Amino acid sequence: MGKWHYGVVLDAGSSGTRVYVYRWLNNVVARKGADSTELKSLPEIKTKPEWTKKIHPGVSFFADRPEEVGSQHLAELLEHAKKIVPHDAIKDTPIFLLATAGMRLLGDVERNLLLDQTCSYARANSDFLLPDCDVHIQVIPGVTEGLYGWIAANYLLGSFNEPGRHDHGKGHHTYGFLDMGGASAQIAFAPNSTETQKHANDLTLLRLRNVDGSTQEHRVFVTSWLEFGVHEARRRYLETMQAASAVDNANELPDPCLPGGLRTTIDGKPLTSEQQTGMQLLGTGKFDECLRQTYPLLDKDAPCLDQPCLLHGIHAPAIDFDVNHFVGISEYWHSTHDVFEMGHKDKAYDFNTYQQRVESFCSQDWETIAKGIDEHKWKKLNHEKAFEICFKASWIINVLHNGIGVPRVALEETTGPIHNGTKEAITHAPSKDFLDPFQAVNKIDSTEVSWTLGKMVLYASSQVPVEIEEKTLPVGFGSNVAGIPNDFQYPSTELLPNPDGLHGTSWHDALLNARSSRRVPGLVLFVLLIIMAIFFLCGRTRRSRMCHKIGNIFHRGRSYTHYPKKRKFFGGKLPFFGPRSPSYERVLEDAAHEYDLGGIVSGRSSLDVGRLSDADPASFLPPKRASSWSSSNTPSLKFGLDNSPSGTIGLGITAGSGINAMDRAGLVVRTESRDHLSPIALGPTSNGRRSRTGSPSRSHPHRSPIMPPLTRDD
Question: Where exactly are the structural domains of the chain?
Fold first, then answer.
């Protein structure tokens, strides 16, 4: 591995797919010469504008022909990534294709076929690191997308690395995050301390790792609203408007969200010559009415089972705007700056200035707007975008102020239509330092704010090595509980730690991974465990015969009369080798004809032993297994849509179990079959053991190997 690590993320959105390439320093290099502040910081992720490429349409466009998604869509993006990543680093560069709301709207069969084709094509046509398709190629739930966005925004703003410089009061130093795409919208924020305690079960635990190996934890509320993106909201708006129309034979529906005089198809598309006679929308250019008609789409009247709620009856902790300062990306930026800020690069936002600009634009007739577009009055506006911009602006205003509750900043400062809100915002922006309740952003320090950056920050953070692996908790996120939650999600399967509690390399890697330094010890351990398992299952008769054969090998040519103790090579030491009682074996050997053995079990077989009656008070419970391949502390590594369990990865041997296979009270006794634990001549003090008068075993300091299973200790 060279000086740089690389990572590739493909954002498969509803309208297109965009590839991002990132890089960061090798941790050894990053630590050299780093000061204390840099050591306590997250790995520094770098990218360049030319490392990003977007193509249209989205992956979901190939739902009815998934076999074409590779050659017709992914090929161009993979070739772009190959040009950026050095050839010798490609095999160590992870690639992720993470699809969002567009793919979430597909059926399960269509979605799975697309994902399978995507993974197969990526593996066949590139050498990027792709260890597990289910993790690296997947549809991520909206809450995961929102969390990645929250990480990206706070990473670029510096709140992770320098919390003291971003102290908002009340011990709070992070920023809230808002994202709105075409199909869904997300919100993520860390509540104040009071709300954090009150709504602990509603928060997500996020753990990151600094350059020096230390960790930082954050507790974040994140939720997502599917069908609340601008395109899906527009679709719901048009359906509602058609349903509300009382005239069945009407050819026109008035739409206050379209510029006056503009005619479109019923779904808001430009008219063609063949569509001149069908149902049409006729723009009226009444923005106030547009605001009123889009407000019901927030679904604020939905039942709220757990107060408070934001949109669509979704519960959320109360937002303290004194310490929660939000940044908004995607449509929050495009709908507030591309047109209505006239190309200014300021990041400030105030409600009244924005609404005045929207009303001024949307009240113009379509002929005037079309002429301005042709004259390039608005650099980023074309005819198709102009069809939608007024609806988008009304939706953004409703979501921000009536849905989420962002305060309407600067109302009291605006005195009339000549107020230049943009110029004033530019003047004050440097001193505000993102401390307004809401600010729309596109880039921070020349880097685009994208949730894909948050994914790569998480991955790069997880690659930082630690000195004491057993005492270091893993990087990732899950339910807000101490330690490692059952639903904890790791950045990549390549980085999954040992699932038995993170004590070193997993059993799979130790046995099969040629790069693992523990491969040989792990293989030896595995073989020994298999041998022991076979030995326990072969039955007492066969075990006894094997013991005698082993003893014969060790004592070949010797007289057992002269070596009475050595004949019991294992039998005198361990309860599961040889006969049941060492005293019985000596008696049988020295003077067997003088004793009446009665019901004592023969050393040859245990199958003829009498059974306990149902009424016997010393009857045994089924034995408890003494060791297991899993532990109650073992995390379930789960991945999949909506954070639901979709699989468990890996097995492990619980470290520190304290089970000694050579202990009389340990593994062997607990795993004996019930047939081989049937004593005879039970007495009130026998504890379920056989007894013989004069047997030396009665005074033996250890417990007899023939005993009931140990009392459960859990």
Answer: 1-140
Q: Is 186 flagged in the annotation as binding? A: yes
* Amino acid 389: pLDDT: 94
Is 182 known as a binding-site position? Answer: yes
Token output for 344: 């200014």
656 annotated among ligand-binding-site residues: no
SS3 content of the chain, % helix, strand, coil (to 5): 40, 15, 50
Q: What is the pLDDT of residues 148-191, one digit of tens each?
A: 999 999 999 999 998 888 888 877 899 999 999 988 999 999 99
- CA 630 to CA 450: how far, in whole Å? 39
Confidence of residue 243 (pLDDT cuts 50, 70, 90): confident
Between the alpha carbon of residue 445 and those of residues 95, 156, 345, 441, 476, the distances in Å are 25, 7, 12, 11, 26
Q: What is the fold, at CATH topology level, of the domain defined by 1-140?
A: Nucleotidyltransferase; domain 5 (3.30.420)
Whether 145 sits among the annotated catalytic residues: the reply is yes
Helix (H, G, I), strand (E, B) or coil at 205: strand
Residue 183 assigned to a binding site: yes
The answer to whether the pTM exceeds 0.70 is no
Question: What SS3 class is residue 331?
Answer: helix
Measured CA angle at 542 (ends 537, 547), to 5 deg? 110
Q: What are phi and psi of 292, to 5 degrees?
A: -65, -35
Task: Consult the annotation and say whether 243 binds a ligand.
Answer: no
pLDDT, tens digit, for every residue of 450-477? 999 999 999 999 999 987 776 789 999 9
Q: In this structure, what token pair is assigned to residue 140?
A: 């991520």
Dihedral pair phi/psi, residue 255, rounded to 5°: -125, 110
* Token reading at 554: 């060790």
Of these residues, 145, 227, 341, 359, which one is catalytic? 145
